[in-house]
Amino acid sequence: MTQHNPWPDEGNTGHIWDDDIRELDNPPPLWWMLAFYAGFVAIIFYVIYYPAIPWVNSHTKGVAGWTAIEEYNQDFQVLNNWRQRTFAAEEEQLRALDVTEIIQDDNLRAYAINTSRVLFSDYCMACHGAEGSGNPNFPILANDDWLWGGSVKAIEAAMINGRVGNMPARGMMGNLTDEEVIEVAKYSIALSEGNPDAEEFAAGKALYNGKGMCMACHGPAGKPLAPNGAANLANEINRFQGVPDNLQASRLDSYIFTIKYGVNVRQGGGFLENTRRAEMPSFKERLPDAEVNIKRLAVYVHSLGGGQ
């Protein structure tokens, strides 16, 4: 910048670069000034017409009586009325048909699935994860591992009645010693890995079939003979991960903990300390219009990949 100003009467600010680049001090165009002042007038109008100034416990209401939530409710009602007019036939069918009939109708099944995504996100995703992918210590819905059966009817029943897991605390009720619990845990893992007959698991196998009484629920090969709420030990899908204070604990430690403390074991007036908790509430009182929406969600869950 130079200190010499060869154009003293030009109206520049005196800031000159490279001998001839200078900053002028011209007034803004008239149209720009008018728009600028119109903005101030608009502010005054806005403050008078709309809610604008906050007070301690409220705000100015504005002469229009407008609120964002009221506009939202009106728009939602318009949308809801359109939906009711457009999809009245499908909604009536969902209400009238049994859930097993719904999945046999391609168009109705697709409609139920498409209208369930928001419901699933609002009521199911917190536990079961996006698209049924599961969260730590909550069931995955996108596989074929169902404790009470994966038919669409069984899924509907689970939503209506809820589900409560149950497994005795074999290490706390005098059934098994700590050493025996470890042997059963090792054998259970061997069942899922396909080598339960190895000599090193013989002790655990004997306990599984005998003193531990595991076979009664989990079946002789680790797979329940019928859906009864017992886990399928013949695959590598684990209902529980880690231990309560350490989700990264080894699979063996997780099995030991579950066998020792059981699932939903009651003691006295409450639950046994450290027992695993596994409970799904009933949704017949939680969902709006549960008669239809439970069917809708059952079809959606059945479609995630694990429905039988």
Descriptive keywords:
two-stranded antiparallel ribbon, respiratory chain, 13 helices, single chain, 44% helix, Cyt_c-like_dom_sf, mainly alpha, membrane, 308 residues, Cytochrome Bc1 Complex, Chain D, domain 2, cell membrane
Strand order across the largest sheet: 1-2
**Overall pLDDT level:** 92
Strand content: 5-15%
Number of E-state strands: 6
What is the number of domains? 3
Main sheet summary = 2 strands, antiparallel
Radius of gyration: 34 Å
Low-confidence stretches: none
- How many distinct helices? 13
Q: Given the helix and strand composition, which structural class is it?
A: mainly alpha
**Helix fraction?**
40-55%
SSE sequence, one letter per element:
EEHHHHHHHHEHHHHEEEH
State the distance separating the first and last CA atoms: 81 Å
Structural shape: elongated
In short, what is this structure?
Belongs to the CcoP / FixP family. With 308 residues, the protein is mainly alpha-helical. It is 44% helix and 6% strand.
Task: Explain the overall architecture.
This protein is mainly alpha-helical. It has 3 domains: about 1-45, no CATH class; about 90-165 and about 280-300, Orthogonal Bundle (Cytochrome Bc1 Complex, Chain D, domain 2), CATH 1.10.760.10; about 180-275, no CATH class. The protein is about 45% helix and about 5% strand. The chain is built from 13 helices and 6 strands. The chain has helices at about 30-50, 70-85, 90-95, 100, 105-115, 115-125, 125-130, 150-160, 180-195, 200-210, 215-220, 250-260, 290-300; strands spanning about 10-15, 20-25, 165, 265, 270, 280. It has a two-stranded antiparallel sheet with strand order 1-2. It has a two-stranded antiparallel sheet with strand order 3-6. Strand 1 and strand 2 form a beta hairpin. Helix 5 (about 105-115) packs across helix 13 (about 290-300) and helix 8 crosses helix 13 (about 290-300). The longest helix has 20 residues, at about 30-50. The mean pLDDT is about 90. One of its GO terms (cellular component) is plasma membrane. Belongs to the CcoP / FixP family. InterPro entries: CcoP_N, CcoP_N_sf, Cyt_c-like_dom, Cyt_c-like_dom_sf, Cyt_c_oxidase_cbb3_su3, Cytochrome_c_Oxidase_Subunit. It comes from Thiomicrospira aerophila AL3.
